Amino acid sequence: MTANYILEISDLTKSYTTKKDKKVTRVLQGISLYVKKGERLGISGSSGCGKTTLLHLIAGLVAPDHGSIIIDNTTVSSNEVHIAPHMRGIGYVFQSPALWPHMTVEQNILYPIQNKDVDIEGLLDAFEISNLMKRYPSQISGGQAKRVAIVRALSASNKLILMDEPLTNLEKNLKMNILQTLDLYIKKTNKTIVYITHDMDELEFIASKKYVLKDGTLKNA
């Protein structure tokens, strides 16, 4: 394609086979997607439609049956190539915060950092977690844990941030506060994100380009 794209997905297909009855389910069917640097791609869809599977494929947590994925002009997945997740230069926010329980907030954030130019202090201040650095995950609230997970992902990569329903189960006002902070930070730093959610209001607020995943294919939202 072109150097303007940070993420290029071509003809991506993924199926799963159940262990019990060997039934094959096609989850993704020929997905092609091109994301420019600084774009905020939002994807919605019903439970089980394949949104998380798509993120797992981009991250390298699973391998595609067919197709290719290019991140920042490097092929990371194809029929011949599969680069490990930690070598892809991405940040990932899971549905649960997934913080290391034996590490402090500070250690959780600093552990995966690949981007040495990131303004850690600015991030901590923006997401209002500077006072939590010496605490452990068991000593902070669920909302605080989600902020820590977002800061960790933003700190880890300057290429691409994947967000899998990062604000699920948060009350509306807190969710909007975090979304506004995230929006300002992304605009300031020109980060590129792929953001999936069930919440259409969330999608409308954060995404510059929106799709719905249905029947294994992407459709314009």
Question: How would you summarize the topology of this molecule?
Answer:
Elements: E1 5-17, E2 24-36, E3 40-44, H1 51-59, E4 66-71, E5 74-77, E6 90-93, H2 105-110, H3 120-126, H4 142-156, E7 160-164, H5 172-189, E8 193-196, H6 200-206, E9 209-214, E10 217-220
Parallel strand pairs: 3-8, 3-9, 6-7, 7-8
Antiparallel strand pairs: 1-2, 1-4, 4-5, 9-10
Summarize, please.
28% of the residues lie in helices and 29% in strands.
Give the topology string: H per helix, E per strand.
Answer: EEEHEEEHHHEHEHEE
Q: Using only CA atoms, what is the Rg?
A: 17 Å
- Beta-strand fraction estimate: 25-35%
Task: Give the total of domains.
Answer: 1
Tell me, rounded to a whole number, the average pLDDT: 91
Task: Provide the structure class.
Answer: alpha/beta
Termini separation comes to 24 Å
State the low-pLDDT regions, or none.
none
**Secondary-structure arrangement, i.e. CATH architecture:** 3-Layer(aba) Sandwich
CATH topology: Rossmann fold
Helix content: 25-40%
The total of beta strands comes to 10
